[in-house]
Design goal:
By secondary structure, this protein is mostly beta strands. The strands form two sheets. Strands 2, 4, 5, 6, 9, 10 and 11 form a seven-stranded mixed β-sheet that branches. A four-stranded antiparallel β-sheet has the order 1-3-8-7, with no helix packed on it. It is built from no helices and eleven strands.
């Protein structure tokens, strides 16, 4: 069983920064991609960012490009989301997710931006950005 635990959320003023962390435990293989999603009240869950197993490839949602950076430290089994120039519209519960599909088995049509592509999810951490 894989467990994902997010941390680092909180209240910040617009223009500020936060760094979220996601600790992965329960599965020793490190050949998994990781993603961050977010869900604001009354809205669908939205893709934020994805990083492949070795950190060589990153993908970002349009609304966060240039402001957020995803990274990972495989020695610590942890993925990070550095969020800069935060805006009130970034307010949401942020979830990390793990995709254990082996790279060779991935459907080439998949983009890594859809919820169904991920196998495990954390409980989420609240980020609130005030005016």
């Amino acid at each position: 069983q894989v467990q994902l635990v997010e941390s680092g959320g909180g209240l910040v003023q617009a223009g500020g920064s936060l760094r979220l962390s996601c600790a992965v435990s329960g599965r020793t293989s490190r050949n998994y991609a990781m993603g961050w999603f977010r869900q604001a009240p009354g809205k669908d869950r939205e893709f934020v960012a994805r990083i492949n197993w070795n950190g060589a490839m990153m993908t970002y949602g349009d609304s966060v490009k240039g402001r957020f950076t995803i990274s990972r430290d495989n020695t610590k089994n942890t993925v990070y989301l550095q969020m800069n120039i935060l805006k009130p519209e970034d307010t949401a519960v942020y979830y990390c997710a793990a995709d254990y599909t082996p790279p060779g088995a991935r459907d080439p049509q998949q983009t890594g931006t859809q919820e169904y592509e991920y196998d495990y999810w954390g409980q989420g951490t609240q980020v609130t950005v005030s005016e």
